[in-house]
Amino acid sequence: MSKKILMAAADAASAAAKEEHIQIPLRNWIDVEDADNSSTAASSESQLIQALDLNQNRSEQKYYNNVALDDDAKIGIDNFAVCVYKKRGISSSQQQQSDDIRGVRMISSGLSLSIEEPSYLSCLFEEGGEKDDQMGRYLEVELDAQDASVRINKADCHDSADGKEQRKFFLDREGGVAAVDKSASAGIPAIQQMQRWGAPASICRMMQNLLESAAETGGDAYQTMGEVGEDLHLLLFDPDRFLFDHEAQNAHNMQLLYRKEKLYGRDEEENLITDTFCRVTRGKSEAFFIGGFSGSGKSMLVDTLRVRVKNVGGYVIKHKFDAISQDRPLSGVISAVNQLCLMIKHRLTSKRLAALSKQLKDDFGADIGLLARMLPNVCALSPEFSSLAGEVEDRNTSDNMNARSVSFTLLRFVRLVSSPKRPIMLFLDDLQWADDTALDVVHTFLSDTMGSCVFFVGTYRDNEVQIGHAIFDLLQKLETSNVPTIKLSLTGLDRGDLNKMVSDALGLYPRICKSLSDIVFQKTKGNPFFVLEFIQSLQSRGLLQYDSCQKRWLSNEIQLLLKVMACFGTCTNESVIGYLSESPEYAGVRNGLEGAISEGFVELNAEGSFKFVHDKVREAAYNLTPDRDKKQLHYNLGKTLHSICEGKDVGNAIFLIASQINHGKEFIETDDTLRIPVAKLNMKAGEKALDGCDHKMAYFYFLAAISFLPGDSWESYYDLSLRLNVLMARAANSSCRYDEAELTLQRICKRARCLQDKLPAYFLLVTIFLSQGHPNQAYATCSSILTQLGESVPETVTTETVGDMIPETLRMYSEVYGDDWLGQKMEDTSLSNIIKFYSAMASAAYFCKPSHMVAYFVCKMVQMSLQKGVCQYTPLALMQLTSIVIRIDNAAFVHRIAKNALALSEKFGSSGEKTELCVNYYMGAGHLDSYQSGANQLRKAFSSGLSSGNANAAFYCAGHGTHFSTISAETDLPSLLLQIDYYLRLLEIYKSEMPKKFILCYRETISTLIDRGQSTGIEAKLSYGDASDPGIGNKLLEVFYFHQVFRNYWLGYSERCHHYVQKCFAISKPGHFFIYVIKFYHGLNSLDMIKKQANYSKSKEVDEIIASMKVVASQSESNFRNKLELLEAEQYGVTGGHIVAVAFHAYNTAIASAQKAKFVHEQGLACEKAGFYCKRMKDNEKSLMYFNQARECYEKWGSSVKVDFIQKELSKLM
């Protein structure tokens, strides 16, 4: 028996007042539509999508009618009704065209789905009851299990409007749906009939499956309401794929409907990488590694993040490594950062771009040209950068650069252009082909704690990396540097996700594709790329078709193009294709390119190069050439390109040409006519790599060039051999291959014909010794070379000798310096070389000889320049002189010499020499400038030194800058501690021990002042040497004693402070400015001891200190005026100053001076001293005021120790 079918009615919405809700039988609606030829196919499709849209919405919101199902339940095929809103005031003849279609409604005893909007449901159906006149006739289907068919009988219902007899349908399990009536269409299958009326096959199939019984047919019949909803969702979500028929598809033109942009089965992974990026936008760099087999969807997973990164204002830069280009991985990373410049250019407004350009110029200073050489696209940010790049090229300032300096220079750029609001996502694909030089750049970016905001994503084939690969070293370094890192491994898709992929490709419902998907899964193990290739293979072989099969073969031109491109790696520049097409042998590559693009093997990337759509396509193309013929193919390509491009400026294509021709080494070595041309080709490629700061790549090209030279090259090709060996030694040194560099340099020194040719090799050898911390070897080498150059280098000199040389040198300077001398350039290159080696010898002597020996060599350099004219090393010699001779009594004169040296340096020198100039300036004359500005300049010089490859000078700039920041409170203590820890991490990387000892000493002071080292201290075994050490030990002791005075005074340890003051005076040079900082704390400490012990014996010593402070304050107002005024105020307050107004005026003057100088710690100290004075005077109100001001200053300084101390005093007064 039939069950009652109940439809719930809802109240009409406000729109119902203007529109009448009606339902039209689907059959009647189709008849009218069929008769109305004015309706276009497009409008029908649009209306059908609209109907399905409502259907899907209601299906997802579960607006279903609850219907019971009995064995004898009946289903009415004609109770499919079109739901419309009839607009009032429209005639019946116009009704069909003006109906606002709201959906389609189907009701059966087994299935009941309302696709009307619930607010407009107005009809209540009950079997056997009255029907709405608008419904017309409908038929019931009676299910008969004993019969072979399901008959559709006429049921009691209203006659149709035209009185015509309605068609009768039957469903035959053998033959499908058919229509039988008295019309001419009798016998035509119902699905075909409906298709003839315009209904898509997908709808017809759905209707048939709704009427079938899965239990009896075992076919595609629906079993649950959920299956219907899923299919309806697909019809709505992607109608072009699942709803409408593809008339163009036939046996000879079958197109698989791939979703290239869709990522299947990676929802969790996509959420994980998105969440990680969101954390990066809060300001903390992170790393995300994705491993997996080729084709597992690693790159596509990363690409899902591109839009999100762009939406938050970030940048995505990418580089893909490949097996063919393994010898130049660093160039790939540089190229990726170079892309960033153009992105910034197009993204920022002109105003913001101008501000960024100014910021770059301010931060990089003279190094902006160096950056422009490394990243040519940075010139797009400002036209001024192009001319600066040319100046750098003229000076050859990249000679001392190395892989680390390149990394640091890139980091400086990234710091300025990245931020939490504009994060950078660096995506490096196929890391299995990368090496440590490229990944060291990644570590430099991510471990930075000074402002960069980078999200690194690296993908690699985890089945192709072995233990010891650079990836694992990078992971270890990131862990050591506390960089948050996620490592993810992608496997194949599960059966459900794979089925969705197959369904999309074929345009069929997933439930229908399941059996095929199971077979595909067995063959591919769920690898997404293999799945698509397998289906494509089935289609191309005719095993997957609409009606008949089609087989395709690649043309010879396409095969040639694919073979050629595979030799060049994943990408090939269009210019290379153009060069090859000029040759008869490869003339077909241009046509092959067009075919390869149309066939889907190759595509154009964002940079204008052509790339394979996937690595596996490139591998397959590469394997088109038998292994035995691959070297020959590479070699032929190289020779062809070389012959076509010889004499042309081909830019970076020279790397590709040289790499290709180098595959044919065995062919070249058998042909003497090719050796020298190929060696010169590799030399040009190496020089090009040096220009791009890829020293490792340059090293390999120079190595290849030398290997092509004949055995007697030092005799037959002397100039070429000498140049190549010098270049290779430089590249080896810059690539941190110090052993290879030394061997090459020794070979030059042995084979070169004269000393003049050996000098570059010797000087580079000295540079290596200094960078590796071997000053004695550097000193001995310089002494030997200077002797050969005719100089008499004494084993030792007396202090008396140096004492006479210094005033004589200063006298000569006073007499000679002027425009005439500045215009007198040193023409004798041998003299220039002598000064160069004296300069290196002075640097070595600083670490291993007494200080007066350094002074001797510096005076020799300056006197030689004053007599013979200026050269590149004159500015540094003058600056070294100022650091040696600076005293209170000659400060103004020495300061002028230093300023003149800086002005002269603008005509000469590289960034590395500017770093040495800076460190020497602030060791001497820079004390007359503000300590705070000096700290800032020293930080810039540190960055410049690392960028230019002068790491030793850079780290001494870092040390002096930290020292200046400490004594001037230029940076708050916690920030300064972070900066010091950053320096220490770099020192570990550079393995530089001598600067590390100084910086560890500074760190201990900072940590102690913050919280006595309770939470900020680190374990470090320090060896400070002793006063008898003529070199670095004595200088380290000076720093150690100074900081003991500083920290013990601030902690209130008067006796310890006094002890270390005496040690400082015993070993420090009298008259040096640092001594006056010591005297300041010694004076305050003496006054504290007077207060504690009521012993005025130290008053005379305080008087002497104040007298000397007046002299130094007259020379360096910004650094010492407030110190003098605080000493005077405290002396008055301690030694009997009972005139309160005078005392207050003195203290307030000292406070104001400290505030003006921005010495917040000394401002707090002056307030503290004033507070104690008021306390002694029983003026608690003013004491509270001064102590509160002191606490505010100490909070700004970041010293919890002093804040706690003042808080205790405040508690006593409250």
UniProtKB/TrEMBL annotation:
<dbReference type="InterPro" id="IPR041664">
    <property type="entry name" value="AAA_16"/>
</dbReference>
<feature type="domain" description="Orc1-like AAA ATPase">
    <location>
        <begin position="262"/>
        <end position="448"/>
    </location>
</feature>
<dbReference type="InterPro" id="IPR027417">
    <property type="entry name" value="P-loop_NTPase"/>
</dbReference>
<dbReference type="InterPro" id="IPR053159">
    <property type="entry name" value="Hybrid_Histidine_Kinase"/>
</dbReference>
<dbReference type="Pfam" id="PF13191">
    <property type="entry name" value="AAA_16"/>
</dbReference>
<protein>
    <submittedName>
        <fullName>AAA ATPase</fullName>
    </submittedName>
</protein>
